Amino acid sequence: MVKICCIGAGYVGGPTMAMIAYKCSDVQVVVVDIAAARINAWNSDRLPIFEPGLDDVVKACRGKNLSFSTDVEAHVADSDIIFVSVNTPTKTRGLGAGKAADLTYWESAARMIADVSKSDKIVVEKSTVPVKTAEAIEKILTHNSKGINFQILSNPEFLAEGTAMDDLANPDRVLIGGRETPEGQRAIAALKAVYARWVPEDRILTMNLWSAELSKLAANAILAQRISSINAMSALCEATGADVSEVAYAVGKDSRIGSRFLNASVGFGGSCFQKDILSLVYICECHGLPEVAHYWKQVVQINDYQKTRFVNRVVSSMFNTVSGKKVAILGFAFKKDTGDTRETPAIDVCRGLLGDKAQLSIYDPQVTEDQIRRDLATGKFDWDHPQHLVPSSPTACKQVSVVWDAYSATAGAHGICIMTEWEEFKNLDYKKIYDGMEKPAFIFDGRNVVNVEELRKIGFIVYSVGKPLDPWVKDLPAVAY
Ligand code: UDX
Prior knowledge:
- The chain is α/β, with parallel strands linked by helices and 481 residues long.
- The chain is built from 19 helices and 16 strands.
- Strands 3-2-1-4-5-6 form a 6-stranded parallel beta sheet, sandwiched between helices. A 6-stranded parallel beta sheet has the order 13-10-9-14-15-16, sandwiched between helices. The chain has a two-stranded parallel ribbon with strand order 7-8.
């Protein structure tokens, strides 16, 4: 029986291994992590991450061919294939701070694998890493190998949160990169055989290591670039009276462009896009390609601009100050169907409003109060000026309340900001909400989920990203939007 071990029980490692176990009943899969609380949660009825369909898959396999353990070394030692799916955050200090990927966890995983291994292993890069990481990992493994043969493969994961189980069950493609030597090709074939149980052969792409590593960074950069492109257009739409949804629809009808990832928003969030682009920027700079680095940096800069622009709209519309005013924040997760708040635009928008002394009442159906408070209390890391940590507002704690439904969040509020496109925000009783708010009542829709015309009929002053402006907003003196 093939034994697979995955180091790292996070958003990628957990669901991916659960799917492998589900599809390959004759493969033994163990997910290991040093974080005991996380492993305990994977072994409990309340999994540590919220992902539609995940519970069923885990329940079907756990205790049969899927297990979760903190006994990292023992499981690594007797596995044939080891996936490494550990964090690779952006470095916040030292060389490359603000851009380069921090490979500390990866390096210690590699050293541990070399230490405990007694038989040949295939080591698979699952977490997104800078191009040529495999070379460094290979050196660590071979210099400590005691005669054991290690083959490194790159097998980047493309799943998106909220649709992880579907993405894993029906991937557009699976990438496997490896060395062009006979041993490298044998390792590729072994991993391909695992995926081939449920993924059609023509969707399993094999290539060299560097192409596979770079493809992942390139895919994320190009997806984020589409969002920044449409968000840049949204500013121009507001200035001219065009409607960004119509523009995106027209543009997306061109079959060369396609319609997906063209939804204007308050900005993209999530653990991958910004981190991977900054890593790409750093790699370009290291390879003496400043023009290429500058090009990709703009994608992140437009994203920051979009969040600032949103805050400016809110404050300027509400008579140039939100000081002491209750503002309801609907949604805090970086997108719907997830409880994840990493790099969520809601953090920057809340910080901006808190800086103007607003009283925030925050509601998200999946994010805990603890998480929201932690996110707002942590100083913001400024990737463009990594030496400066922008401190959080000292009174932030007192200015924030976290509530458990949209109606209490909005009661008595002067304004509402929609930060996440949760389905329930489309169907709220907005008449009831309007009646309970201070007047004039404002809605700032950062996700284009509300029906602007209907809300204007109720009496709201509505701003929706990239849509023709409400006369109220249009007549205000120009600020930097
Ligand atoms: C992304 C990639 O899609 C996935 O392939 C990769 O493996 C990890 O990074 P994820 O971060 O889970 O996945 O979410 P995604 O659905 O890509 O959305 C990222 C952000 O962009 C979210 O904040 C989302 O709201 C925003 N977004 C997305 C837009 O603002 N407009 C769009 O049209 C699409």
